[in-house]
Amino acid sequence: MAGRILVGVDGSEGSRRALEWAFSEAEIRTSVVEAVTAWRSAYDTPRDFDFSSRVDEAGLAEHARRRLGDALGASTGEHPAVEVERTVLEGDPAEVLCRRAGEADLLVVGSRGHGTFVGLLLGSVSSKCAHHSPVPVAIVPAPRRGEEDRTFRSSDRILAGVDGSPGSRRALRWAVDEARARRASVVALMVWRPIEVDAVPTDVAVSEPTAFPTLARYDRAAAEDASERLRHLVSEVLGASEGDVGVEPVTVEGDPAETLCQYAGEADLLVVGSRGLGPFAELTLGSVSAKCAHHSPRPVVIVPTGRDRRRTGAGGVAAVPAVPA
Predict the structure, then answer these.
(1) pTM above the 0.85 mark?
(2) Chain-wide mean pLDDT for the chain?
């Protein structure tokens, strides 16, 4: 699975962890790592900026180069076999990464960077990348206070969230390819919701009990339907490669995002589609994938829906010339 992995670096602890994960992934894929840092012009400021002061643009770019070099120092020593390219660009970090991602197979970012609200689970850059990247985005979480850091612990298992939507099909295919490279197995998890009591016509359920199934019968039917749909979808996605990668179909009752995050704790990676079968499926990022990006204890890969896996300067994704670092 040779290719290119793009990773955003800003000198923060979050980007250091993202860089470490990107190097580990590059070893699995025999990929090139392109480490990108972005610097913003001092003139890109609020209107009350004092333009009478002189701004050393070259100094800002040089500072960004040093920051990138410092971040790469330890990582390259631990992964000498990985080919590394350094890119320093001017612009908004999220926009730079999303444009540059058109040349890559995977974009990797930390869950938090050097933002004003570093206490948030997902930073502005990682959130924007999750919404707008043309290629799959891996979001590497920071360990939670008081909890064991399990980000890099191996379980040889990848969890894929499946709901039957085109996005989840792409996510499952990506998870199977990743499992093949890692020599791991896949758990395809479909979460179904029990019927809401308010959804049952009370007068019908009480006066004509045989005309409407009981909640228990409905839930049992929903569970059986979910299991059947999941088995069919897994078989469809695997196709001729069935047996090449072990895929375990699992159906569970509950809230989709909460259940996926709970199961993710026992996997190396959680893979979800950018959109599912919700009422606002046209949105760039669905509620389930957004919640997983915020709360998963393990790295999350969000696979975009309706876009080519790789895009090179086409379809609104511009190729950005690199500045030698």
Answers:
(1) no
(2) 78
